[in-house]
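Section: Multi-chain targets

For targets with more than one molecule, the full set of components is provided together so that the structure can be written out for the assembly as a whole rather than chain by chain. Components appear in the order listed by the source. The example entry contains two components.
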Amino acid sequence: MISSTVAELSIALKAGDISSVELTQAYLNRIAQYNGDLNAFITVCEESALEQAKAADAARAKGDTSLLLGIPLAHKDIFCTQGITTTCGSRMLENFISPYNATVVEKFSNAGVVMLGKTNMDEFAMGSSNETSFFGPVKNPWNNECVPGGSSGGSSAAVAADLCAMATGTDTGGSIRQPAAFCGITGLKPSYGRVSRWGMIAFASSLDQAGPICKSAEDAALMLNVMAGLDEKDSTSIDKPVEDYTASLGNSLEGLKIGIPKQHFAEGLSSEVEQAIRDALKEYEKMGAIIKEIDLPNSHLSVPAYYVIAPAEASANLSRYDGVRYGYRCENPVDLEDMYKRTRSEGFGEEVKRRIMIGTYALSAGFYDAYYRKAQKIRRLIKNDFSNALKEVDVIIGPTSPHTAFKLGSKSDPVSMYLEDIYTIAVNLAGLPAISIPAGSANGLPIGMHIVAGDFEEAKILNVAHQFQKLTDWHRQKPSQISGKEV
Amino acid sequence: MEWETVIGLEVHVQLSTKSKLFSGSSIKFGAEPNTQASIFDLALPGTLPVFNKEALAKAVKFGVAIGAEISKRSVFDRKNYFYPDLPKGYQVTQLDYPTVGKGELAVTMDDGNERVIGITRAHMEEDAGKSLHEDYQGMSGIDLNRAGTPLLEIVSEPDLRTAREAVAFLKKLHSIIRYLDISDAIMAEGSMRCDANVSIRPVGETEYGTRTEIKNINSFRFVEKAINYEVQRQQGVLEDGGRIVQETRLYDADKDETRPMRSKEVANDYRYFPEPDLLPIVIDDEYIEAIRAQLPEMPDAKKARFIEEYSLSDYDAGVLVSSREIAEYFEVVASQSGDAKLAANWVSQDLMGLLNKSNLDISKSPVQAERLAMLVTRIKDNTISGKIAKTVFETMVEDSSSVDEIIAKKGLKQVTDSGEIEKIVDEVITNNPEQAQQYRDGKEQVIGFLVGQAMKLSKGKANPAAVNELLRKKLA
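Its structure, encoded as tokens over all components, is:
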């Protein structure tokens, strides 16, 4: 039962085949068994999860038919949860207990979802391997010598190892899609503005977006139905009606035009990933889709532009962690300056400090035009590239990552780590929706396929992914053992 | 050497909105520390700003009132610096695209001449909290009630030439802001604050000298004193062969001096960039016109109308329109008494004198407009003389009874009964035979003395016109 999709669990709960309490207990047992090895959770909320499950069962008995009622979920520890520690993977917030709920948390709670706990992540979502977490790295359930990807590595590993039915993630440059690819699961980054950022701890405000991490495209649709929508508390959330994302899951792909960016099938792409994606495209051709090569001429500029804009915004977003009002404060500061310096030196990890330095530099007097302003211009060019391409094709498909999950500790050079998100970053700069779904495997590690569409075309993406999952079973594959333990 | 002073002002006014610029917290003055600070004001992780459109309406109202350019698209920026009373570590302000652009303000200076002073821009921004350094045994207290209060920063061109001009400009600005009702603009409470950029140059020189910025000036009087001190200081430095250092200086009212701020208090690179948590503010002509339609009659227009409608002197009209409340008070007195000239005198002299003496705002005046109107009415209908009215007015400050009750209680009603007046006149003639004879001999001006004696005898209550008439008749 624990490996079932949300859609299947919804039916089982409705039919009374299982109760939410039983299901919640099963996941809690699973967490107890595997989390010690995987380190996917920072906080497990056993007691409150069982209470919520009990309440969900009671609500169902009274006639509540909410689709996600009683289904256990894990929140990335970037979402503020009232009364529960919200660390953002940082020593700075190690003991921060939020007095309020993020809108995403509130929405799942209102839908009757059970929260199992908070998942591990790269510190302040800055990382592509989950190795920057103050709470230690997460292991990839498929191979515990490998990283799960990042920054939503805890959520992805938890879903892949069936420690929860579904999880939330956030994606600033690929932080949902790349770990979803590495862990063999489904992860959707919605269009910028589709999901409220209220209560989601900011990394780079103009790029951050919350999304579902789960076991199928259909599950992603069910989750997005709950998460999406205008929020008065987030001025950048969009006033656009939320559609039922499951409604178009049956549409035929006959005549669908799929664009293949030539820049994403070039140097740097591993042959096994390329082969898997090309095989997947053949499946689409079988469904009547037309494949066409497209050009995204400014692709090579997306990583450099991102590593100016994101750190610049982060350098300001992280200024509030000053030891004055909450969070970590150094011992016995001698004066204000000393308190600032030591609080931030001791409270932040190396990668976070590196990005604050990069961002501060990029915004400094005399450098602003050369870096920040230029990066914003590039951002517009990249957005135009996608707009032009999407005039010719309906969706853009390619690999999510150039290779499968890499070994823990194998990427010590920051730039090589930054290049991990080479295919995903441009989508954040353009604000578009994109999904990663499992589409193959190599050496026992999953391979992710990346599907991008136009602004607010989540429904189209989800159906394109769903049709593939109807024909294939990559998304059903599970690691045969986790950390040496048979599953 | 003869020096010319060049002054530009940066004036911050707190917009009198119901809530803060980006949160729902109240901005009421004087609340217990940190009781008006929401999770956003505390900069808790994950919180986001929501722009208060009431602030926009007030900013645009100011812009329209001074005929300034209004931006159809304005953008908020982050200004980065660390300070404990700045919870986010950045202040949200408007750098490149302020809501209000170039405008101008006509100011009547001390010499009676009007000068047009350029307004460079006016932009919205959030206020910081307060750091309290006393009473915490070596620690500092932080009060975030003020953090996030909406400010309009109004920047003038360096068009002012003396400290007196700076004060006149500031008073005019204050009057406009009060007319528009966009801020309480009380300098003592900090809802209006002024920084002055001051430089000097030899008379005839066209280049500006190096300027200093004076902060922490919190009254009109201190604006004048701070600038004058700074001008003297700069002259001293230059005449001794020194150079002016471009720096920020604090005005210390107790010592009446300016001194440089410690370098730690001056951040030099604010690393401005557009605030990604907020969308640009976009407005159209319809919005601007709707605001324009709400504009009240502004002081210059009101003054012209007072001169025209009530035949007031330029000076009197100027005094009466100096604040919207005084002008409104005057119009009540004028219309209810039916004598604008008399009303103008009473409001601009007696009432203003009273308020200045007791340091009261007109809204707190112990004599309300309706009561003063009644007093003027009683002068006009000869119930009391102007002189007796002063006594009645003094009583009115303490005694909230009606004007008629006070007149009756004190027996101040003017004597108009001819029999009684005749008795007084006869007595005056009898007591002053010499002066009576002088009048009979043709010395006209003696009549004034005799009337005065009669008024004295009647304790001011006799109708002077009636006395005058009867005296002339009897001495004819």
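Chain A touches chain B at residues 79-80, 86, 88, 93, 96, 98-100, 102, 197-202, 204-206, 232-236, 312-313, 315-316, 318-320, 322, 324-326, 336-337, 340, 360, 363-365, 368, 372 (CB under 8 Å).
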